[in-house]
Amino acid sequence: MLDVGRHPNIDLLAYSEIEKVEGEAGNFKITVRRKARYVEEDKCTGCGACKEKCPTIVPDAFNEGLGERKAIYSWFAQGIPSTHTIDSNYCRQLQGKKCGVCAKTCQAGAINFEQKDRIVELTVGAIIVAAGYDVFDPVKIPEYRYKKIPNVVTAIEFERLLSASGPTAGHLDRPSDRAIEAEIEALEKKAAKSQKLVAKFEEQFNQSSADFYAKFQKGEYKDDEERNKWAEKYKEHLTIVEPLEVMKKKAEGFTAAKRLAFIQCVGSRDFRFYPFCSGYCCMHSIKEAIIAHEHGPDTTSTIFGMDIRAIGKGFEEYKIRGGNHSNISYVRGRVAEIQDGPENNPIVVYEDTKERMVKSQEFDMVILATACAPTKGIYELADKLGIELDAYDFIKTSPLSPVDTSKPGIFVCGCAGAPMDVPESVAQASSAAERAAEVAFEGDVRKEKAVA
Amino acid sequence: MSKDILVIGGGIAGIQSSLDLAEMGVKVHLVEKLPSIGGKMAQLDKTFPTNDCAI
Ligand SMILES: Cc1cc2nc3c(=O)[nH]c(=O)nc-3n(C[C@H](O)[C@H](O)[C@H](O)COP(=O)(O)OP(=O)(O)OC[C@H]3O[C@@H](n4cnc5c(N)ncnc54)[C@H](O)[C@@H]3O)c2cc1C
Ligand code: SF4
To answer: Which domain holds residue A387?
Structure first.
């Protein structure tokens, strides 16, 4: 990634979109919109002092909303370019309020609230589309209760929970536990404030609130206006402190998730959604189970699937190693439903097709291996490029020319064309690069020479 | 006739195409809609089958 940022032959246009495409192979005219970051790319050193001071907290999309960032942010810590960006939907200054704290903090003078989108015109001989994919939204499968049961998460969310640079610093803290911890933090702030108010009265009357309130409830001090105020404030204080204590007791028992269930083919091999196999999800469930076991050696994982597809160099061995060394059991069966259980433990209801029985089992956390879905922006992009999509809205190709699109001079690689893993994406990328260079340098040889 | 090449998307696929072309001596314009390149792979903790770090 770093190499892309500093290669003299690569003109990196990040935070940019394709506006218009005209022309044909050998001579495409491209209009690119460089979106305003409100930060000057050539001045920003990426030091991040601005985001320390920014008062506006925003859900962090890079962490799948499981963490928070500021209105001025870098997409992720090692991002290339490292230039920070101001999110105009949240920034106080850009929303017309008074702020500008980042501008005052920035030593490089890189903040520019007046920055506008810029238009760049390019002329190119060939185009490679590598626009990738989206993760299937499991809300579409109501029986899995994603977003309803907090400890049912997607595999990409789970990647962020496993990551040392993620929102939990790599600890497998359950979302339901994290929600309670966040509530405790908020209540503690409120409690500290109300404690201050109550303390004033305690000082004034030289008496503890508990002692005073017991007497007040018995009917003492009824005509004392000041003490009536005290009683009211103390009552309010109790409505904060009492649930806070209950929650804190509960939180003492929180431990990392240890019993994991992975549900395969969520949206894939399912005729309601995508009939195809996404290819990589069996492998990423095994991977996530292996890493979870590395984090906590007493972690156990159950992978529920119709079959485990480990087709690739070294993949079957990886699957077996996971089973032998990482406490993974593979259960052949399709999960019918996920129910909410006690202590926020999801219950997986499934058919064990080996034993021909419907069973249910409780877990600490359930991870959904979601399908590879076409990326949202692909319709607009394909329209601008004048290329065709296939039946599932991936870019159309044919088996004997897997990186050629329907339009000469435009090529595709990676998940924009079909679901595939990283090794395959990289192989296609090199292939698309070679095809694009052929067109740009000598005209399309395949037009003149025989095709396999 | 232009010898420059446009790559749309800066995930692992777009990055690899760009680097291959750049190493061949071709001028590449890499357009990414997000603030940084890396795509989904940057979000992964480690990658199968070697469990190497994703970034
Ligand atoms: C949970 C999970 C775990 C995985 N683990 C592994 C693993 O361990 N090993 C493995 O081999 N594979 C794994 N995969 C699969 C892997 O994510 C993909 O194979 C790989 O990321 C595909 O790369 P890509 O470049 O095609 O797409 P992407 O990574 O999606 O990149 C596409 C890029 O294009 C940008 N873009 C999109 N539209 C536009 C546009 N209109 N204009 C400009 N830019 C645009 C996007 O912002 C993005 O940066 C995993 C997948 C998931 C969901
Ligand atoms: S790779 Fe596995 S989980 Fe993914 S669709 Fe294929 S069979 Fe289902």
So the answer is: 375-451
